[in-house]
Fold:
Amino acid sequence: MKKILYSPGEPSGIGPDLIIQLCKSIFWTDIKIPILCLSDPRLLIQRSKDLGKKISLKEVSNIKQLVANKKNVIQVMHVSDCRNLKYGKLYQSNAQYVLDNLQFGVDEALKDKNLALVTGPISKENIISINKDFFGHTEYIQQRTKSNEVLMLLSSNQLKVALATTHLPLKEVANKISKELIISKAITLNECLKEKFKIKDPNIKILGLNPHSGEGGKIGNEEIDIIIPAVKELRKKKINISYPISADTAFTKKNLKKTDAFLGMYHDQVLPVIKALSFGNAINITLGVPITRTSVDHGVALDIAGTGKSDPSSLKEAIKTAKKII
Structure:
């Protein structure tokens, strides 16, 4: 039986709010897949009171105990204690709680191919305060699953964008870009578009690193020295990928219609585009790892936690996509 684990992420943010809102909606039963929330039950009880939402909790000690979702009922597993139940402010004492839930979710997904992990928003700042080697969900999942390759993909009805590099300072990006990296990321993207999204012959557009894709070497040589040679090898492998195009003209209506995914060189080259077009309806998918993991496309939103103003649309899409991919 297909199942979903939901790790709400930062307890001071809207992650808990989203699952409480969903369990009150028709979506909760219509989705027809059991959802287990990894949370300290006390957090959900307190947050539901703060939101003025009447819910019931069903605590389970084993994932095999999961049953079909019932409206207003959240199935919950107590993995770790949440030290501070307050919202709207980060508490370092909660950082380990977030990691405990995430670790449990990843490990369980590794055991069962019919189980997907859906993650809520985390505060990297808070986790880094206790673990300086933490860079984000994507990198953590790669390390935990001992995967050689990992690819961050943001997907919506409008477009899909993947990242050659993820959470790096901008000054380090150019040194990270290599022919081998581009080839590896493009192959992973192509294979996953086929396997997970059932696209027979994916049309991939790759972006240049520099403005105007370097203008023939006038504004940087990475396109000539690295990206174009990588594209030539990829095309020999029968991968339908463009030569590097300028990011400022890549996302035209014409290109959006005929492109299955864009491969960008760094985080802020492509994420502002998809969030401008699809914020709240996009999701994050981790590719190249042996588990199914999707996530919301937004942050912890401390300013609206506990107010009832959070929008669960992205979580809905993350759950629907996870169900399809399993």
Observations:
- The chain is about 40% helix and 15% strand.
- The mean pLDDT is 95.
- The two ends are 10 Å apart (CA to CA).
